[in-house]
Amino acid sequence: MNDALLxxxxxxxxxxxxxxxxxxxxxxxFPGATPxxxxxxxxxxxxxxxxxxxxxxxxxxxxxxxxxxxVWRRRx
Amino acid sequence: xxxxxQSIAIIGAGVAGLVTAKTLVARGYDCTVFxxxxxxxxxxxxxxxxxxxxxxxxxxxxxxxxLPADVPDFTPGELVQRHLEDYARHFAxxxxxxxxxxxxxxxxxxxxxxxxxxxxxxERASRHFDFVVACTGLYSNRPHRPSFAGExxxxxxILHLAELGDRERLRxxxxxxxxxxxxxxxxxxxxxxxxxxxxxxxxxPHWPVPAxxxxxxPFKWAMLNRLTSSLLPPHYRPSALERALHSIxxxxxxxxxxxxxxxxxxxxxxxxxxxxxxxxxxxxxIEREAFSEAVMLPRxxxxxxxxxxxxEPLQTEIATLTPTGAVFANGATREFDTLLLxxxxxxxxxxxxxxxxxxxHFDDDGLYLxxxxxxxxxxxxAFVGYASTITSTLTYNLQARWLxxxxxxxxxxxxxxxxxxxxDAQRAWKRRTMPFSRGRAARLLLHxxxxxxxxxxxxxxxxxRKRGWYAPFKEVFAPYEPRDYREVAADRE
Lengths: 76, 493
Ligand SMILES: Cc1cc2nc3c(=O)[nH]c(=O)nc-3n(C[C@H](O)[C@H](O)[C@H](O)COP(=O)(O)OP(=O)(O)OC[C@H]3O[C@@H](n4cnc5c(N)ncnc54)[C@H](O)[C@@H]3O)c2cc1C
Fold this sequence. Notes:
The complex is a heterodimer.
Chain A: H1 2-27, H2 35-75
Chain B: E1 7-11, H1 15-26, E2 30-34, H2 77-90, E3 97-98, E4 103-108, E5 114-120, E6 123-129, E7 131-134, E8 157-160, E9 174-178, H3 182-194, E10 197-202, E11 212-213, E12 217-218, H4 219-223, H5 226-231, H6 240-245, H7 250-268, H8 286-289, H9 300-308, E13 311-315, E14 318-322, E15 325-328, E16 333-335, E17 338-341, H10 354-360, E18 381-383, H11 392-407, H12 416-433, H13 448-458, H14 471-477, H15 486-489
Helix pairs in contact in B: 1-11, 11-13
Residues 11-17, 34-37, 42-44, 51, 53-55, 60, 102-103, 135-137, 139-140, 351, 385, 389-392 of chain B line the site of flavin-adenine dinucleotide (FAD).
């Protein structure tokens, strides 16, 4: 259980860093986004992804199975 | 484009015309608003019994002109109309409006600009304008009236909802209603209150959107945030995250929408419970159906009336009318005195000269425009209001701001070829992801956040509108509302 949670959190953290980088670069395009605002976005983004990473990962796995089953039935 | 035109004609004084006039007048443009009717407000100036806004009050107000505090949710039509009158007076638009003056023809002036022919008291007059903004609405006052076999033999009355006036007209009668959109559901409840029997006839049921999901969560929290927006069938210009979500993350997205469907089936009791009641579960997945013609927030009493039999649901279509009723495509027959058509209204661009209409290129599913506003082939003519969203007061405000900035040369259009490419991509996307309707080109609905973002990006304003410490959290989960754009609408940002 702990390992599963940890794996999900690491997975979320990695996605969070990617997402935060994209947001940081997007914010540079507009006037008015101060460095403090940008840092806040980065921190929140990484935190949220890390927090929800486990849910995303462990819902994604059964969703893959269910989705594959539905697609297979539709084709059959 | 015509930078800084000297004279601007705005056609229509509904929400779109008023907000366009307000924005352009504030920038110092010489605007004349032509209104066919005798009141401002467009659809809100005339309505059917019991009509009103479909969403909570804070979603249908101007960003810089909120509704008065005592206005209830699902604002009744007459209050919206009064609010629009106040708006027109407050922002000095009223003196610019020429009432009871429909535009009969718009054609290119050989000397440049436009020639507008209007009619007033039976007299026609033509005037030159440098720039024209069409704000005539998605729905004209011309009702959409399907015709039926056997119509000539039917001895009862066939009415479009627009002609109903007072529901008392239905008292004691047997009424059949055609349609399953918001207006049909409103009409069914109005009829059921006074009629002897009420039947609603529809080809297919649609997914209802509840005011509160499971009776708890206001729908705006489930539908109008960036999280939901990114789970929709992807926009034609998706972000990297959305691309990932709809490829590797697709099973998760799929599961999300099936959960939403399950919740709606439970909340509205749509299932047939082994044939003990009518099966009202739509066949189309919700993420596609959400973009159909008849997406609706029904009054809670509507589904109760269907389940209890107060309103009889009949999923079929009329095969032929008989002298006393109808035979339906599924073989059923019913007798009724009034056939009430809740079949919507038509878009009317008959006032645009034929050659111009050909250049604009109207498709079966509407008019595809760059940013829902401009044709790459017809500079000098803009459309505001040709965008169907859930918060039109906001959408049209942002459109007007985008247009004003363009006329002031604060932002530039891409080359015509790039605009055409964008329009083509938008057309292909809508045809791939949204069911056919006559107004599909204008359809944005839950994709409105994507659209608002692109307008703001064009004018160099950040689309991330949430403020404060929790702003990044709110960006994902909190609903976007007109008030988030106050500074943009008021021209302060
Ligand atoms: C019952 C109901 C509920 C709704 N609920 C919502 C909601 O919850 N959220 C939402 O976003 N939208 C809702 N809408 C949609 C609503 O139509 C728009 O929000 C908005 O009011 C449309 O404004 P408009 O100015 O574009 O068009 P209109 O209101 O149609 O106004 C167009 C104006 O142009 C005039 N005109 C037309 N042709 C000419 C001509 N040739 N010459 C001169 N004048 C002309 C017309 O007389 C009219 O005054 C609802 C509509 C209805 C009917």
